[in-house]
Specification:
This protein is mostly helical. It has two domains: 7-151, CBS-domain (Roll), CATH 3.10.580.10; 154-285, no CATH class. It contains eleven helices and six strands. The chain has helices at 7-12, 15-30, 58-68, 88-96, 120-130, 148-176, 182-188, 206-213, 216-222, 228-246, 255-285; strands spanning 72-78, 81-87, 108-109, 113-115, 132-136, 142-147. Strand 4, helix 5 (120-130) and strand 5 form a beta-alpha-beta unit. Helix 8 (206-213) runs antiparallel to helix 10 (228-246). The longest helix is centred in the last third of the chain and has 31 residues, at 255-285.
């Protein structure tokens, strides 16, 4: 499993730069000697797609797409011979030009085909251009299809944990910043930090959050009428999940851990919203 120590810097970068950096790091890891993140990891890449044969009526193809909520259908002569891709886009273009199309052959476009062991992001780049890519196995048989839906779903699985961890950290810092002194920070931030460096709340990591929240003075200052053990354990869990995310896992962190991150981020978000509302109410009564 490959460790990516640069993620700390990535998570603190602006969102625009973050996406570029994440993609760059993914590429540098996956194209190495032990790269394993291939198109084959996608379920849709190994599920024979619904297709039609040359000569199939447009009416029949449109019915299949509407019935299955598909945006396209491969046109296959046989399991190895690809004739093209019939899609709403290809059909719509011809309709706009008042072309008469009775069979799919008259309203299809060239289809791109990638191998099952192709690099995943090669497929994503191809989908960005043509909306869908067909996948073939070692026997050159069409064994799957990757669409824009698959790209969206995969990015959600891989990238959402990074964004949730960033959100959780921002909420924790916002809660702590007015109640933590520089001396407090010196106690929980590793001593390798230069003595002349002014410590900031952004220098904290999850271990620091946990240490500070265990301090009675800090916890009391937060004025949270919550069970501290449960709250701190949630931070500890987020710290553990963060470690899984930083040691990149090709299939993501799993539904259970992702749900924990989502719930804790939502919990912290609600705390800050309620606190902000409470401060507004207090200011009106002054």
């Amino acid at each position: 499993m490959t460790s990516i120590p640069q993620w700390d810097a990535v998570l603190r970068a602006p969102l625009r730069d973050k996406w570029e950096t994440i993609l760059f790091e993914f590429k540098s890891v996956w194209t190495g000697e032990d790269a394993t993140h291939r198109v084959s990891l996608l379920k849709s890449a190994q599920k024979t797609p619904l297709s039609v044969s040359p000569g199939t009526s447009v009416q029949h193809a449109v019915t299949l797409m509407m019935e299955n909520d598909y945006s396209q259908l491969p046109v296959l002569q046989d399991e190895k011979t690809v004739k093209g891709m019939f899609s709403w886009r290809s059909y719509g273009k011809r309709m706009a030009m008042a072309f008469e199309c009775s069979v799919v052959d008259e309203a299809m476009e060239p289809a791109q085909v990638l191998d099952l062991d192709a690099w995943l992001f090669e497929a994503f780049a191809a989908v960005a251009k043509s909306d869908a890519v067909l996948i073939q196995n070692k026997a050159r048989e069409i064994c799957g299809i990757v669409t824009a839906y698959d790209v969206s779903e995969t990015f959600g699985t891989l990238v959402e944990p990074f964004l949730l961890i960033e959100e959780i950290e921002k909420h924790l810092r916002a809660l702590l910043k007015d109640h933590v002194s520089e001396d407090d920070l010196k106690k929980v931030i590793p001593s390798k930090t230069s003595a002349n460096t002014r410590l900031r709340i952004t220098d904290l990591n999850f271990g620091g959050y946990v240490a500070l929240l265990k301090e009675d003075r800090v916890w009391d200052a937060l004025r949270l009428k919550l069970d501290r053990r449960v709250f701190v354990q949630s931070v500890v869990d987020a710290k553990s999940i963060r470690n899984d995310v930083m040691h990149f896992r090709p299939l993501g962190i799993g539904a259970e851990k992702l749900t924990k991150l989502r719930n804790f981020a939502k919990f912290l978000r609600e705390i800050r919203i309620l606190r902000k509302a409470g401060k507004k109410s207090e200011s009106k009564n002054v």
